[in-house]
């Protein structure tokens, strides 16, 4: 049975986010050099929960010609501009990448920051949006948009642990298989963190 939106709101608003805390699981934190944490670039993503009868999560598939993370499945987001906090950055980036008007986003709560091996400290901001909005991917950055049932991505049995070599080091990362493109790396790590917060 799909999670109820009121249950999601209650769980996330009750969750005590610890400033500076990084989840000790996922793809990048396992092998991360903690001495570099202070040098990470602040960034934020919107984790858009679509308020369908059975809620879904909205994902983007990045343009294959992007310099970073080309072709990967991701949440809309990017680095913080000067003077921005994570919520404002997540809403701005979501509007730029998907034409999602911030007025349609019910911001629920940010969850734990996530350190990536590419040098970012990402704050995921969970927001609820209405179904069937006229969203349009920004062609230069986003190839397509797609939805995945929330109960599917929260199911721990779908959180596969895999290993691979990156920059000469063996790394462990999560993969959540899906027909429109596997969710993996930092995005999957953030989903796993969300699942643990909601179900712990």
UniProtKB/TrEMBL annotation:
Keywords: Hydrolase, Magnesium, Manganese, Metal-binding
SUPFAM superfamilies registered for this protein in UniProt: Nudix
InterPro entries linked: CoAse (IPR045121), NUDIX_hydrolase-like_dom_sf (IPR015797), NUDIX_hydrolase_dom (IPR000086)
Domain (Nudix hydrolase) ranges: 40-169
Keyword Metal-binding (UniProt): yes
MF (Gene Ontology): coenzyme A diphosphatase activity; metal ion binding
CDD domains given in the database record: NUDIX_CoAse_Nudt7
Listed NCBIfam families: PRK10707.1
PANTHER family listed in its UniProt record: MITOCHONDRIAL COENZYME A DIPHOSPHATASE NUDT8, NUDIX HYDROLASE
Protein name in the entry: NUDIX domain-containing protein
Source species of the chain: Sphingosinicella microcystinivorans
């Amino acid at each position: 049975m799909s999670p109820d939106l009121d249950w999601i709101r209650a769980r996330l608003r009750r969750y005590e986010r610890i400033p500076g805390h990084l989840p000790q699981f996922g793809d990048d934190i396992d092998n991360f050099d903690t001495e570099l944490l202070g040098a990470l670039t602040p960034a934020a993503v919107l984790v858009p929960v679509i308020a369908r009868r059975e809620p879904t999560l909205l994902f983007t598939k990045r343009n294959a010609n992007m310099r970073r993370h080309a072709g990967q499945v991701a949440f809309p987001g990017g680095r913080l501009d000067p003077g921005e906090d994570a919520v404002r950055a997540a809403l701005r980036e979501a509007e730029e990448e998907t034409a999602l008007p911030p007025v349609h986003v019910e911001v629920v709560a940010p969850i734990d920051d996530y350190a990536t091996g590419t040098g970012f400290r990402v704050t995921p901001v969970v927001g609820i949006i209405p179904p069937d909005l006229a969203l349009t991917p920004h062609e230069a950055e986003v190839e397509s948009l797609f939805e995945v049932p929330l109960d599917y991505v929260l199911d721990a049995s779908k959180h596969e642990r895999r290993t691979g070599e990156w920059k000469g080091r063996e790394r462990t990362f999560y993969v959540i298989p899906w027909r429109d493109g596997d969710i993996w790396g930092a995005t999957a790590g953030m989903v796993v963190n969300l699942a643990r917060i909601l179900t712990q």
